[in-house]
Design brief:
It contains 16 helices and 2 strands. With about 250 residues, it is mainly alpha-helical. It folds into 2 domains: about 5-150, no CATH class; about 160-245, no CATH class. The protein has a two-stranded antiparallel sheet with strand order 1-2. About 35% of the residues are buried.
């Protein structure tokens, strides 16, 4: 199995600054020189399993707007492939930037089609092919976001990874409201309770995914988080509180 590689910081900085000159490479070319010149990267003594990345090689761009199952499959593929990663290493932008410019370049350009407008294209590429901020690593980079969503869902209790991802990824508004709030994303018992509530709705009429109802429930949960130390409660108690918020 191949070993993980990190771009050297100087190489990554150069690529970031040269995006406007390399737009056609991002659209349809390749960055072969990154591999040919060993001074561009650092090789770690950690392997990853390329076999699991197959679904990303066959990603169909026309499916992304209508079906979240491709995204679920992509999350699981990346998470399984990079099982040796620790959260600490998974925050290293040099790892993900190397992958979006090499092994997963084709997937990245298919999943995040580059705009025709030059200025928009530069901004788009810097957001999805690099990962220069904590938000960029967890939410924007074409590949790292998949690992982080799967990692978070893998920690949820009482729900399978597949079901957790299907539930979380069904609607962008739901996902954003959960992940962008500390009460719901950093407290595993709260996160798990929300996913379990949503899972039942996912396989039913999906009424809990209605924007107005979901946002009202999340607002109530965050208010509770300001008055009660939710992570210290038993899972059963958190379940009851979260269920009550969704019933209101």
């Amino acid at each position: 199995m191949p070993k993980l590689r990190l771009l050297k910081q100087s190489t990554m900085d150069r690529l970031y600054g040269d995006v406007h000159n390399n737009i056609e490479l991002y659209r349809s070319g390749a960055f072969d020189k990154l591999v040919e010149d060993g001074t561009n990267y650092i090789e770690l003594d950690l392997e990853y399993d390329q076999e699991h990345l197959g679904p990303l090689d066959h990603y169909k761009e026309d499916g992304q707007s209508t079906d979240n199952l491709q995204e679920v499959e992509a999350c699981i593929a990346v998470f399984r492939s990079f099982e040796s990663l620790t959260p600490y290493l998974a925050r290293d932008s040099r790892l993900w930037t190397y992958l979006t410019h090499q092994r997963l370049l084709v997937y990245s350009r298919a999943r995040w089609p580059i705009p025709h407008n030059q200025e928009a294209a530069v901004k788009h590429i810097r957001a999805h092919f690099f990962a220069n901020t904590a938000r960029g690593v967890e939410r924007d980079n074409a590949v790292s976001r998949l690992w982080w969503m799967a990692y978070l869902c893998s920690r949820a209790n009482g729900i399978t990874l597949d079901d957790a991802l299907r539930t979380l990824l069904l609607q962008f508004d739901v996902r954003a409201n959960i992940l962008e709030r500390p009460t719901t994303s950093q407290s595993i018992n709260v996160f798990s309770a929300i996913l379990r509530q949503l899972q039942s709705s996912y396989y039913g009429e999906r009424e809990l995914f209605v924007r107005k109802r979901f946002r009202a429930a999340i607002k109530q949960i965050n208010l509770l988080g300001g008055t009660i130390l939710l992570p210290s409660l038993r899972d059963e108690d958190v379940d009851d509180l979260v269920a009550k918020c969704f019933r209101q």
